[in-house]
Specification:
Blueprint (H helix, E strand, L loop, with lengths): L6 H4 L2 E6 L7 H17 L5 E5 L6 E5 L1
C-alpha cells in the first residue's frame, strides 16, 4: 500500500486504542499486527502510540 510511506509527510502522531480481549477490537488488533512493522520501517520518525485498555471501544487518532 503506497499510503504507508506518505504518513510522516502529513501526520505528527498516530494513536491506536483498543481492548485486549473484546471482539469489537479484533479488527484494530489485526491492523496493528499486520501493519505496525511496515509503518515504523517506512516512517521511523513518526510516533505511533498503541494503548491497550480493558473495555474501551477501538479508536484511531491522527494528529496533524
Amino acid at each position: 500500500m503506497a499510503w504507508r510511506n506518505q504518513l510522516s509527510r502529513n501526520l505528527k502522531e498516530l494513536r491506536i486504542l483498543f481492548c485486549q480481549t473484546s471482539p469489537a477490537s479484533a479488527p484494530a488488533r489485526s491492523f496493528v499486527e499486520k501493519n505496525y512493522k511496515d509503518l515504523k520501517t517506512l516512517n521511523p520518525k513518526l510516533p505511533i502510540l498503541i494503548r491497550e485498555c480493558r473495555g474501551i471501544e477501538p479508536q484511531m487518532w491522527a494528529r496533524y
